[in-house]
Amino acid sequence: MAILACNFGSGTAPATPIATDTAIPSVDTAAPTHPAPEPTPILTRPPLSGIVYYVRPDGGSDEQCTGLADAPYAGSGTSQACAWDHPFRALPPGGTPRMAGGDTLIVASGEYKMGFGAPGSENCDEGGSFDCLMPPIPAGPDSDHPTRILGAGWDSECGAPPELWGSGRPWFIVNLTDASNVEMSCFEITDRSPCVENHTGGLACERDTPPYGDWAAYGLHAEDSANVHLRDLNIHGLASGGVHAGRLKDWTVENVRIAGNGSVGWDGDLWDDGPDSNTGTLIFRRWVVGWNGCGETYPQGEPTGCWGQEAGGYGDGVGTGETAGDWIIEDSAFLHNTSDGLDLLYHTLGGSVTLSRVRAEGNAGNQIKVSGGMTITNSVLVGNCAFFEDQPFTYWVDHCRALGNTPTIVFTGGEAASIVNSTIYGRGDGLVGAGPREGFQCNGSEAIAARNTIFLGDSDFFDPSDITFLFY
Hints:
Layout: E1 2-4, E2 52-60, H1 87-90, E3 104-107, E4 111-115, E5 147-151, E6 163-167, E7 172-177, E8 182-191, E9 218-236, E10 241-259, E11 264-268, E12 281-290, E13 295-296, E14 303-304, E15 306-307, E16 318-320, E17 326-335, E18 342-344, E19 352-361, E20 368-371, E21 373-377, E22 380-383, E23 394-396, E24 407-411, E25 416-420, E26 423-426, E27 430-436, E28 447-451, E29 454-457, E30 459-460, E31 463-467, E32 469-471
Parallel strand pairs: 2-3, 3-5, 4-6, 5-8, 6-8, 7-9, 8-9, 9-10, 10-11, 10-12, 11-16, 12-17, 15-23, 16-18, 17-19, 18-20, 19-21, 19-22, 20-24, 21-25, 22-26, 24-27, 25-28, 26-29, 27-32
Antiparallel strand pairs: 1-28, 13-14, 30-31
């Protein structure tokens, strides 16, 4: 089936939801008749280079230990051959890193408070503890000699990753500003409060008077950063977002979970007034982005206070500013975010989007939203966009936001989209939405080609007497 993407009619839907969500009917997804694309080659790790430093909970301060041995502090003496007791010893807030580009820091299993009051945070002030941040990780000299921040188990199954938990409302925990040629692997990054920054339903964090509490705004911040490899990370429960990142080039993200963050999962809008655009090849494998726009209880890790834009929140699983780049997303899932699952609507500056073996389900807006050339293969998009209605963890979510189209595909001029071997289900006003991106014009050559794909519309959430239509 081929559908031209320009020349649309008009239509609106009632603003107020009047029906509850229903069970998703079973769908026969038999083996595809087209061959699956080859996975993107897995990048190999170059051998460790530079100086290797160690951190472990029973280590010592930078005066007591050199950090050059994986051994505890004996209890007396200075400059001993033993590990440091905290990552801040290597990357001290308000100080100069004690490791150089191309060095490696290996952090033992354990719990490490990140923020005011942590070992190595002596330069921090409690009233301004939002700035109690590690300095940027030093850039490696080149892609063959990256700076490495590695948690215990990084070279095996990552069975007991060290936990970096934010306290005192730092803006973020991990700092990748101007940090290129870096690998970070095998960490849990979180905080210990169920609060959500600026929440309007009773979960708001303390922002004005110290002590602010055991929360951090974001897990990881990155800008102007190239050739970075994130692997085996669990970034969850932060008060605002999991990752705040823009102006990236040639990043690889593997086995990374971003879940239960109060406003957004992966936020590509930087705080400054400059451009946000990413470039190069951005590879995401086994990337799970879910339950963002919800608080996360501590220590249970359950969703709470889920909120959307009508309540003053946000809720995208992944959202960016205007961006370019070739986005390759494989074996990944975007689940139960309170707005869109994957929002690449601002992918307007060139490049492509390739989704292979992706599942998007239960997001309150569009499951997938993409601008420009796009390919979806062997994927399942389940547009049960009223998932949050009447749930005990829901505070205020905009059910079936943006009319609840399961995929929304927009064009900047001349691109084509392909959907192969996939299943698309929905309960929005329409199933597939497409058209020119605002500010751009179609030239008549745009097309969506769908092959060996199931399109299944259910009862319209906005009008249960109607059936979701196929294409708008």
